């Protein structure tokens, strides 16, 4: 089982991990720690993979929760675990409960883990471009604040995602970002292909977190598209003409 950690580990009550694609039981395009329910991967495989990831962080499999992610800016407070079929639609979660694993699934989007430095409060969110533009980072900070963790008390870790040099988008893609703030131009640069830009998604997410008052931001600096050995990637699968791709999991919990 292979996963990455950050300086969030220095907070005594926090366990966290950004898992790679290694250590699971899935096969083929989903080899091997695919934690997303895919029609071409067996349900039993995904359940086993999620249980393995939870166990690596000493979390009971029935206390690992994953929301139904919809690229929204919605965050929920988790007070008790749910079964997958009852998962709420949300892209962010916050909890004050011990031994509750908050998991997010990604394959290029940005997994972000949150922890209070002074109180036992943690959170996790899935931030693709749509969720980030729509306010997912700020919603997480606001939800954590409501639960007792002000922005200056929050430490954040940004996990493996499509890197600053790997996300090519059309010129039209930039328009809502420019409408939001002309300063967002800093997160785009001209791509070799005419009519296209390169978008720095993790940089943009970090920027939105800073605007929301978060001062401590760690980044594992891993590019999912470029590292096929360790990570699943939606964009890489598309460019390679592959029929599917797996989802890696990122988890945080209170000991």
Question: Main traits of this protein?
Answer:
21% helix; CNF1/YfiH-like putative cysteine hydrolases; single chain; 6 helices; 255 residues; alpha+beta
Provide the fold topology.
Blueprint lengths: L2 E2 L9 E6 L23 H14 L7 E3 L8 E4 L13 E4 L5 E6 L3 E7 L5 E6 L1 H6 L1 H11 L7 E5 L9 E3 L4 H6 L7 E3 L5 E4 L1 H11 L4 E4 L14 H6 L8 E7 L1
Parallel strand pairs: 3-6, 4-5, 9-13
Antiparallel strand pairs: 1-2, 2-14, 5-8, 6-14, 7-8, 7-9, 10-12, 11-12
Could you walk me through the main structural features you see in this protein, from its secondary elements to its overall organization?
The chain is of the alpha+beta class. The mean pLDDT is 98. A 6-stranded mixed beta sheet has the order 4-5-8-7-9-13. It has one domain (3-164, 200-254): CNF1/YfiH-like putative cysteine hydrolases. It has helices at residues 43-56, 129-134, 136-146, 175-180, 201-211, 234-239, and strands spanning 3-4, 14-19, 64-66, 75-78, 92-95, 101-106, 110-116, 122-127, 154-158, 168-170, 188-190, 196-199, 216-219, 248-254.
The secondary-structure element order is EEHEEEEEEHHEEHEEHEHE
Query: Can you say what the CATH homologous superfamily is?
Result: CNF1/YfiH-like putative cysteine hydrolases
CATH topology tier name: CNF1/YfiH-like putative cysteine hydrolases
How many helices does DSSP assign?
6
Rg over CA atoms, rounded to whole Å, is: 17 Å
- Major sheet strand order: 4-5-8-7-9-13
Which term fits the overall shape? globular
Tell me the name of the CATH class.
Alpha Beta
The number of domains is: 1
């Amino acid at each position: 089982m292979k996963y990455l950690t950050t300086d969030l580990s220095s907070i005594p009550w926090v366990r966290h991990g950004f898992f790679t694609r290694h250590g699971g039981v899935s096969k083929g395009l989903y080899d091997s720690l695919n934690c997303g329910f895919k029609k071409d991967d067996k349900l039993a495989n995904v359940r086993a993979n999620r249980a393995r990831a939870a166990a690596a962080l000493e979390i009971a499999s029935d206390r690992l929760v994953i929301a139904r992610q919809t690229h929204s800016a919605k965050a929920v407070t988790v007070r008790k675990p749910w079964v997958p079929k009852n998962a709420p639609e949300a892209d962010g979660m916050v909890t004050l409960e011990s031994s509750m694993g908050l998991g997010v699934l990604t394959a290029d989007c940005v997994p972000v883990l949150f922890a209070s430095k002074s109180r036992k409060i943690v959170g996790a969110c899935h931030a693709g471009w749509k969720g980030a533009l729509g306010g997912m980072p700020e919603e997480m900070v606001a939800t954590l604040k409501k639960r007792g963790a002000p922005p200056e008390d929050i430490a954040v870790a940004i996990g493996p995602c499509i890197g600053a040099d790997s996300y090519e988008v059309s010129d039209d893609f930039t328009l809502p970002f420019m409408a939001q703030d002309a300063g967002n131009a800093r997160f785009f640069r001209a791509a070799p292909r005419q009519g296209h830009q390169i978008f720095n998604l993790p940089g943009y997410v970090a920027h939105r977190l800073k605007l929301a008052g978060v001062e401590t931001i760690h980044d594992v600096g891993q590019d999912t598209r470029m590292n096929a050995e360790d990570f699943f990637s939606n964009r890489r699968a598309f460019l390679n003409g592959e029929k599917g791709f797996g989802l890696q999991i990122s988890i945080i919990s209170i000991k």
